[in-house]
Structures
1.
Amino acid sequence: MNEIVLAIIGSGAFFTFLQFILQRLDNKKNLEAKIDAIGEALEEHKATLARTHILRFADEQKQYVKQNMSHSEEYFKQQLLDIKTYNTYCAKHPDFSNGLTVIATEYIEEEYKRLYMPHSDITKGGEDSK
């Protein structure tokens, strides 16, 4: 039995097999790194898209107000989700160009409260309406 093991090791087959395994592990690591990079790029794209939605919505809402109109409550709620997506990404990625939606976010949140939560404590500065 020892002679067989020594013959296999001595023939170079073992080292070829070991090299094959190491190469497969390296390929797996490279693939995992590429998948991670794609995932990160997708998250950044989602944040950029959310930022675009926020800015566009705020501009549209300002025009609607001038015409005595408004977006639907559902559309406002979608924008609140976009705000959360954007802010979450910015908090995790300080180098990302964040801070670009501060005024638009405040406007959207205030408009939502004004239109769809007129009796909430939030719009009254924390006072109870009892």
2.
Amino acid sequence: MRRAVDYLDTRSEIDKAGLAYLGISQGSAYGVIFSALEDRFKTAIFLDGGFFLGPALPARDQVNFAVRLKMPVLMINGRYDFTFPPVQSQEPMFNMLGTPASDKRRVLTDTPHDVSQERSILSKEVLTWLDKYLGKVRN
């Protein structure tokens, strides 16, 4: 992930002040770690993610990074997700984020582990979030 952002830094057509992290499922779960370690992202969006339910080594335990994540975060999850259950996984991750309450938002959809089943809600939430934290797209 860092090498990808390093590459973007070399491109003149990329607005380096407007980078966001978007992770889906495992990319969302590990996104807590990636986003806490990468200061070039202005915001993070986690879809279908949460804390892993099993034990983890301290060096890759999401809990150790969630509290250090201070950037704005949007989480969108399924209410019926059995991979990252709301009470055991999603809520603890959201609550442990070091992001100020005013800069984090959690949206629950009436879906299982695939929030893209509610594409209209997903699109509206993500685009509104990006407009708020990166600015509206200019033509």
